[in-house]
Structure formats: C-alpha cells, structure tokens
Amino acid sequence: MEVVIQPTAARAAWLVAALIDRALRVKPPLVLGLATGRTMESVYAELVRRHREERLDFSQCRTFNLDEYIGLGPDHPGSYLRFMREQLFHHVNIDPANTHVPDGTAANLSAECDAYEARIAACGGIDLQILGIGEDGHIGFNEPLSALMSRTRDKTLTRITREQNAGMFGDDWRNVPERALTMGVGTILDSRRSILLVTGAHKAEILAKAVEGPITSMISATALQLHRHCTAIVDEAAASRLEGAEYYRWTFEHEPEWQAFRT
Fold first, then answer.
1. Which region holds residue 50: left if phi is over 0, alpha if psi is between -120 and 50, else beta?
2. Where are the domains positioned within the chain?
3. Which residues contact 54 (CB under 8 A, 6 or more apart)?
4. Catalytic residue check, 138
C-alpha cells in the first residue's frame, strides 16, 4: 500500500478527484467504484466543477456504489442512492442506466447481491474503487470479522457504525437501519486500483492500524495491504499516528507518478 499525505482535508479530496479525472480521460468507459459519506462530498463537488468548467466527461462511465441500507427507498433522506444523485449523478452527464447501487428494498436480498456481483463482472470488473474508512476500520459496510474474501451480501451494522452515520437520521443512531447490503472485501480487492481517502484526527488511530498494523478480519481495511494497487490519501491530521509518515512524505516528493500533482 502507498500512503500519500496532503496538508489539508481539502487538498486530499482534490487529489482523489484529480486521479479520477485522469483515469476518466485515459479510459472514458471507466468502471468506477464509489463511496458515500461526508468525506466524499468534497470529492464529488470537485468532480462536478471539473465537468462544468473543464469538460470532464462521464457519458461512458459505469459506476458501482459500495453499499446501501436495507429497507430504504431511493427517496429516503438517508438513502445512498439519493446521496449519489444529489452529490454527483444529477450534476454530470452520466447515463442513469450506467449507475448502480445495491437495492436495499429487493424482495430477495440474496438474489440482489448475486446480481450485483454479476453486473460488476459483466462490465469487466472495477477499474478504480474509491473508499472511506469507518471508525472501527470497516470499508464499505464490512464490519469486524468480515471474511477477507467475502462478496456482496447483507450485513448487520454495529452500534459504532450506526452512531457514525446518524447525521442523516436525525442525529439519533437508533433511527439508522440495522442492516445494509455491501460489496464484500474480496470484491473490493478485485478492483484494479483502489484509493482510500481518510481525513481528520478522529481517524488517525484506525488509519495507523489499517495501513501499518497486522492484517486481521477485525479491521477489514487492513485487507487493503493485500491489494495489487492501493493508495491511501490522507491529510496531516489523519496521518498524525503513522510511524512511517516521514517516508511517505519523501516518496510523494520523489515518485514520478506524483510530479503532476505536486504544484
């Protein structure tokens, strides 16, 4: 795993958006894995700006979101499909038929999960997967003890996760659904490249465990150490507990890939 430390949360989000921009321009029919949450709002705002001001084209892009709450329809304020429409889809020239979010209202959840995996496979797999991290180290909704080769499935959410996501549910964790559909850890690891965006001092301890600690199913994000091409992009606050911080800064300054992004 590669770690890139940026001075601020805004700059970290800008860099993630810049990498998505570059990937889309190189491969217009990009298969893009997307995440939700407040950390991602700045990324999507920058992508919308680039679409409007720099002609970033989403017309051939296919997207797959990590997860969705079970039981929430697309018009519910806490629905991730609604989040994606409000933050990105309705503001760029993406074909709605090319956007995919697990259906948490499906009558047969197991069949929906299998169909989601099949849709990803039919598109040739995910080229670039964007990720955040939960305070207990989950990616997607892969809570502690998620199998490292798991596939899209339904999961029961921990209280920590429900508390973390209470903002869209009246700030009361008890209003957050108890279960969700999520891509599995194995599905995420199959992506050709993944980018983990982590900001804020409150994520410093779990980030250090995820990128520098042992691989364990208790912290699903540690599985990203096994990913063929994973980059963690973090701000200084989130990086405050990283033992290798000085090395990560040095490599960012000297690796050729980052030359175009250092200005």
1. alpha
2. 2-124+136-197+225-232
3. 21
4. yes
Q: What is the DSSP code string of 145-160?
A: T--TT--SEEEEPPHH
Residue with tokens 């919308």: 48
Q: Tell me: the pLDDT tens digits for 181-197?
A: 999 999 999 999 999 99
Q: What Å distances lie between residue 262 and 45, 51, 159, 174, 230, CA to CA?
A: 21, 22, 40, 44, 19
CATH of region 2-124+136-197+225-232, choose from 3.40.50.1360, 3.40.1620.10, 1.10.3720.10, 3.30.750.44: 3.40.50.1360
The pLDDT tens digits for 237-256 are 999 999 999 999 999 999 99
Other Cβ atoms less than 10 A from the Cβ of 72: the count is: 20
Catalytic residue among 2, 41, 57, 136: 136
Q: For residue 136, indicate whether it is catalytic.
A: yes
Q: Determine the Cα angle at 213 with ends 189 and 223, to 5°.
A: 10
Q: Which of 143, 190, 235, 236 does the annotation list as catalytic?
A: 143
pTM score: 0.96
Q: What is the CB neighbour count within 10 angstroms for residue 56?
A: 20
Helix (H, G, I), strand (E, B) or coil at 75: coil
